[in-house]
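ok here's the first one, seq then struct tokens
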Amino acid sequence: MITREDKVQEISALAESFGRAKAAFLVDFKGMTVEQVTSLRKKLFPIDSEMKVVRNTLALRALADHPKTHSALQNDFVGTNAVVFAFGEAPVVAKALSDFAKDVESLQLKVGALEGARLDAKGIKALASLPSKEVLRAQFLGVLQAPMSKFVGTLNAVPSGFVRVLAAQKDKAGAAS
């Protein structure tokens, strides 16, 4: 039997997790085996995220300190739920959940909250399709680098063209003598 003190501790731990998380995803894990849940948790750990099976009433009380997230998730705490907290990059966690849901059909992506904004299952899948932060940085640097490299290529083309003209003149003069 869970005591009132245990409930208070669980509520404070959940409230702390909601406060630290950049995103929170509500998933229905009904029908999953223990091995599948353990496998999902192992996949989430390296990407700085965590899955907690929660009691709906305790989760709603923990959300009272976070009004934006509360308004995004409050109506969906029905049935067997687990909250996946994304402490790192939210798109990476959404991709891991989406990929795992493809493999394990009993995992249902219900809703998510990203910085207080509500995401439905389609929104979570759209978030999962975004490239990672490193890929976006590389693409951005490529966009910044392209004009400079083209400019350097253009500057290099003038002297090299001049050298080719001189070499052709030399060959022509050498063939004439």
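and now the second one, same deal
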Amino acid sequence: MRLSELSGALAERFASIESAVPDSNRRNASVALVLRGPPGKADPPVRDCEVLVIRRSESPRDPWSGQMALPGGSVDEADDGLVATAVRETHEETGLRLDGRRDLLGRVETARPVGVRLPVITIWPFVFRVAPDSLARVGSAEVASVHWFRVRDLADAGNRGSYPWREGGLMRRFPCIEVEGRVIWGLTYRILTGFLELAGE
């Protein structure tokens, strides 16, 4: 699939952007799945693009402390909708300015935490395209580092594994993606794998 085909494919698989309406029974948050194409290619295959991923800072107040994540956060009353939240949070966390009209390609399936100690929240992932020369940096104390991972590497079955997570006295293993020494699991894994299934078609 080429990048020019992605918007239509997202709408067909996950519904239109306009269908994203805040969940009235939960807190709401938005994240940005940002794609950066390779230099010199106007319409590259999606698998040749890169995805922006952050590593969250270690914090006892953050239920996802230290984990790899997509830039984003909770909806603010001042935000003009769910997309605006993803745009604002991405700029605050990574310094990358997104245009909600020009760069927005679509949305993927919402994600809801299932752990008993996790917030009761609905997370809305939106897909954006940025120019090949776009840069990101650590822009917030909530972010420890920023990374661009190739879609091809994220989709590679050889980079799939399981991540051990201990909570209390219980050890559980979760499916994960291991790339460039980083482990992506949990909600971010769920969001990315839904997208990667579509991008690989």
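notes on #2: The mean pLDDT is 93. Residues 3-153 form a domain with the Nucleoside Triphosphate Pyrophosphohydrolase fold (CATH 3.90.79.10).
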